[in-house]
Amino acid sequence: MNRRFANRQLALFVLSSVGLLSMPVAAAEETPDALIRRLYAEVTQSIKADKAIQAGDVARIITLVDAVIMPNVDFQRMTTSAVGPAWRKATPEQQKKLKEEFKILLSRTYAGALTQVSDHVLVVKPTRMSPDDKEVVVRTEARGKGDPIQLDCRLERTRGEGAGWKIFNLNVMGVWLVEIYRSQFAQEINEQGIDGLINSLSERNKASATKS
């Protein structure tokens, strides 16, 4: 018995010496549907605990969206997809301004959607996916008074720093936002160029800020 114990201790010592026992265990990757459930829960709990948001303070809910939702969004992909082929022709400075203005627009869009469903129950439908999938759609319904509100998210698996599933498109009642933006932006780019789109987004965001 003592010999077996001694052998076990020796084995543990050897493993520790080569660093095997000190190697961190990789955390299980959060599934796309679990991510959506968590984000919705965090946001709705914050809304219920914040009387200013409940009173209609748009700036407060935008701050909440920026803190909780946006870190889980592939903002680069959303911007390049919305701008379309013209993105590659834009200068680095134009790209920077497009990202800044589009982020404000997206934050307000998410905030508007959340204020509509904050008192609803989110039902996440079964998500079919394989371990090798790089993109997936999580289909959900916000159920409350009236008809259910469709809120689907398209996510991609990212690698590197901050790896995990990130949202890159949102479907509100059957309409994918990126496709709508791409159509609108293409028309403005054709008429006024990249700078025209930047100015249009800036004016739109200023107008929204004034209303709030």
Structure description:
With 212 residues, the chain is of the alpha+beta class. The protein has a single domain, classed as Tgt2/MlaC (Nuclear Transport Factor 2, Chain: A), CATH 3.10.450. Helices cover 58% and strands 16% of the residues. The chain has 8 helices and 6 strands; from the N terminus they run H-H-H-H-H-H-H-E-E-E-E-E-E-H. It has helices at 2-17, 32-49, 51-54, 58-68, 75-83, 86-89, 92-117, 177-211, and strands spanning 121-124, 135-138, 140-143, 149-158, 164-172, 175-176. Strands 1, 2, 3, 4, 5 and 6 form a 6-stranded antiparallel beta sheet that branches. Strand 5 (164-172) and strand 6 (175-176) form a beta hairpin. Helix 2 runs antiparallel to helix 4 (58-68), helix 4 (58-68) crosses helix 7 and helix 7 (92-117) packs across helix 8. The radius of gyration is 23 Å and the shape is globular. It starts with a helix and ends with a helix. 22% of the residues are buried. Residues 1-27 have low confidence and may be disordered.
Can you give keywords for this protein?
alpha+beta, Nuclear Transport Factor 2, Chain: A, six-stranded antiparallel sheet, 16% strand
